[in-house]
Design brief:
Pfam families: SBP_bac_1. This protein is α+β, with helices and mostly antiparallel strands. It has 17 helices and 15 strands. Helix 8 crosses helix 9 and helix 16 packs antiparallel against helix 17.
């Protein structure tokens, strides 16, 4: 009996221990489950905080990224959003834009190619938020360039965040080897510029003993004349008089001085005789071929010309240099570009209230951060690029699959206040071009009427422009004299010009 009792006690002890063990395990399991649920709740809360944002942007590839792309997902995580991107092929971007616009079913963020009549009409109908009053609240957007903001505005109001491009892109491309052959310095003033062109035309800069070179090459593209006349103090499209009134550039007191300079270049054979009919596609060819020594163009054409020269003449290792401008009677001036390529606008149909608007603006602001720029432009380090000896090296060049994970996501970038993505090591000339673009921003001449949308110009602008531009060419080549210029101005005025001046000044007063 005693043995049986002891056995019974032992079994009871084992049973009790088992209950304690099960209870403990159950408790651990519940705690683990509670922790797991807590983590899950935290994750759910984070996902609930994410804003779903639909974006319409262009694509230049037939296989843009999808939401399975790790770069796309990394951008979502960084900006705390769930992105849906509608890619519009660049080949029919305008059509796709207008179809989407007319549907009324707009995404949160819409790429706008430019200030087209359809976009202006949509703005007037209240389809897009006015963003100007909010920009100062965001660390990147608050640093937007005032000139570019003004250029991209509609009658002074901001309806889209501009996608920044080089404002100070214009400059002068010079055959550096010709300068060295003739013992010349880079030109600093308009007189230096003229003397360089004369030497390039008359002093055998290539040393071949033949009279086969000239100074400046210009095509039928009007840009070089527009750039060079700013050196003389001519305004960019519109000037402002002492009373605060706007007037067109060709009525400026300094315009005739610029025209006389251009005519002098033509009369002395320092510019190509066929410039008025030369195809812009062949514009750089004479510099590459060693026929012309100077081109007034975008600065980055300099390295493209240099690379072609070196391909043809490998021994000529450093044939090109660039300068931003030359000094005229009013100091150093240059003509800017518009400074942007399209805008990202926020629709009032998808973004219903100010609270949502601020979330979308926060997303756009974050897309200007360095990390977001690198993701959208370069991809993920170790997968799409590497840093070797401190230099950026792309890994996607020969891998279509990797490229498809990121190619086009940079269309979401605005680069405000500046580009921060990674670039490969660059040549000395390319670096000079980039440095001068930045320096140019201090000397570019803004167009005070850039924001104003003119009904008169929309109807008659092309015809009016042709009157003045044709007269400029005719004067340069000697087909008309000063009285012919005056007749062209009178024709411009009677063809809608006076109404145009009145309308622009009215818009200007309202904007003030």
């Amino acid at each position: 009996m005693m043995k049986a009792s002891k056995l019974r006690l032992l079994l009871l002890a084992i049973f009790a221990f088992g209950l304690l063990f099960i209870t403990a395990c159950s408790s651990d399991s519940e705690e683990s489950s509670t922790n797991s649920n807590s983590n899950s709740d935290s994750s759910d809360e984070e996902n609930e905080d994410r804003m779903a944002i639909d974006v319409f942007v262009p694509t230049f590839t037939t296989e843009p990224p999808t939401d399975s792309s790790p770069v796309w997902q990394a951008l979502e995580d960084y900006t705390n959003t769930d992105l849906t991107i509608e890619w519009a092929p660049n080949s029919n971007l305008e059509d796709k834009f207008n179809i989407t616009l007319s549907s009324g079913d707009l995404p949160h963020v819409m790429y706008v190619p430019g200030k087209s009549p359809s976009f202006i009409s949509a703005v007037e109908d209240g389809a897009f938020w006015e963003l100007g009053p909010y920009l100062d609240d965001y660390p990147n957007l608050s640093q937007a360039n005032e000139i570019i903001l003004n250029n991209s505005s509609i009658n002074g109001k901001i309806f889209g965040i501009y996608r920044s491009r080089d404002l100070g892109r214009n400059g002068v491309i010079i055959r550096k080897d010709w300068l060295e052959n003739l013992g010349l310095e880079e030109p600093k003033t308009i007189d230096d510029f003229y003397n360089m062109l004369k030497a390039f035309t008359e002093e055998d800069p290539d040393g071949n003993g033949q009279d086969d070179t000239y100074g400046l090459v210009v095509s039928k593209y009007e840009g070089p004349w527009d750039v060079m006349q700013t050196w003389f103090g001519v305004p960019n499209k519109w000037g402002i008089d002492d009373d605060g009134n706007l007037y067109p550039w060709f009525l400026d007191d300094n315009y005739k001085d610029a025209l006389d300079f251009f005519k002098k270049l033509y009369d002395e054979g320092l510019v190509n005789e066929d410039f008025a009919v030369m195809d812009p596609a062949q514009w750089s060819d004479p510099v590459v071929a060693g026929e012309a020594g100077v081109q007034v163009n975008v600065l980055d054409e300099g390295h493209r010309i240099q690379e072609k020269i070196i391909d043809a003449e490998p021994e000529n290792e450093d044939p090109i240099t660039v300068i931003k401008a030359v000094e005229g009677p009013f100091g150093m001036k240059n003509l800017p570009t518009s400074g942007y390529s399209g805008m990202l606008s926020i629709s009032t149909t998808a973004v219903k209230d100010e609270e949502e608007l601020k979330k979308v603006l926060s997303f756009l602001d974050k897309m200007n951060d360095e990390e977001a720029q690198i993701l959208a432009e370069n991809g993920i380090e170790g997968r799409h690029f590497e840093i070797e000896d401190g230099e950026y090296v792309s890994l996607v060049k020969d891998d279509a699959g990797l490229l498809a994970e990121m190619d086009g996501l940079n269309q979401l970038l605005m680069y405000i206040p500046e580009p921060l993505s990674l670039t490969p090591d660059t040549s000395e000339l390319r670096q000079l071009e980039e440095d001068l673009k930045l320096e140019n921003e201090d000397i570019v001449v803004a167009n005070p009427a850039e924001p104003y949308i003119s009904d008169v110009y929309a109807k008659k602008g092309q015809q009016m422009d042709n009157i003045i531009l044709d007269a400029r060419i005719q004067y340069i080549v000697g087909q008309i004299d000063e009285s012919g210029l005056e007749e062209a101005v009178e024709l411009w005025r009677s063809s809608g010009g006076d109404d145009y001046i009145e309308e622009i000044n009215q818009l200007h007063k309202e904007a003030q």
